[in-house]
Design goal:
The protein has 271 residues and is mostly helical. It has twelve helices and no strands.
Length: 271
């Protein structure tokens, strides 16, 4: 029997505060991943390291998300979404503060890995939780809205962050991400109900059985390969634009726009 609270939750619109906040979570954590793409040349200069080493802020982040998302997600599957998301966002904020204050590349990478550890779990919890705030027939749209926040991070959040890095420095970008993470943590703790209807998603090893479905493992392999290749390639687009296309720090806005336009074209061709 559905409780009164659950009925109230399911009658919320797609533009209700809980749904929009969960989409904002996807946008912010996605921006944290993609924004480093445009900061690689600046990181290499300021931290007195090579471009290849600075590119680890992107590639190591992506690898960490892929490696840590499943085990952490399974370990935390039974935690309450409200408390879990709030905690993850506070860890995300702290990790970006570590990155912002990093004296060198090793500490910066520690902050990036810690931030990556929160991303896969937070996105999974956000997608699961958002379906409880709308009617069953609108759940697909709610999930699309959350993933829309993630996708818009590449085409909106990352260019804005890259531009901010060119104006105020790369450390300001990570401080801004930390502030946004903390604000979202407070917002979710305030807006999300203490009781969220169960979504019927099982924890433990049950979730791993999906890979036994014919064709699923192959599709996952292709998707993983595309994501790995893209994250090894994209970090160096900014370097190419500076060295080969003649776009230096004096035209940061044009470089930022061209960088993510290139990312969009490559993504379109791949998919």
């Amino acid at each position: 029997m559905t409780s009164t609270a659950s009925v109230h939750i399911q009658q919320r619109s797609l533009l209700s505060p809980p749904v929009l906040l969960l989409a904002a979570v996807a946008f912010v954590i996605g921006t944290a991943e993609f924004v480093a793409i445009g900061l690689v040349p600046q990181l290499a200069r300021d931290l007195n390291t090579t471009v290849g080493a600075a590119g680890l802020t992107v590639t190591l982040y992506a690898l960490s998300v892929g490696i840590l998302a499943i085990p952490l997600g399974l370990a935390l599957a039974h935690r309450h979404p409200r408390a879990l998301l709030t905690t993850l966002l506070l860890v995300f904020a702290a990790a970006n503060l570590v990155a912002a204050s990093a004296p060198g590349l090793p500490v910066l990478l520690v902050g990036r890995v810690a931030s990556a550890a929160t991303q896969g779990v937070a996105l999974g919890v956000a997608v699961s939780a958002v379906t409880t705030f709308v009617a069953p027939e609108a759940r697909g749209k709610a999930v699309s809205l959350v993933f829309g926040g993630l996708m818009s991070a590449m085409f909106l959040g990352a260019p804005i962050g890259t531009y901010l890095g060119g104006v105020a420095g790369w450390r300001a970008v990570f401080v801004a991400l930390a502030v946004l993470g903390a604000v979202l943590a407070v917002g979710l703790w305030t807006v999300l109900p203490r009781r969220i209807e169960a979504t019927g998603v099982r924890g433990g090893t049950h979730q791993l059985r999906v890979v036994t479905v014919p064709g699923v493992l192959g599709l996952l392999g292709v998707a993983a390969g595309i994501l790995l290749v893209s994250n090894f390639f994209f970090p160096y687009l900014g370097v190419y634009l500076e060295q080969s296309a003649g776009m230096g720090s004096g035209c940061q806005f044009q470089k930022t726009a061209a960088l993510f336009a290139g990312v969009s074209r490559v993504s379109a061709r791949v998919f």
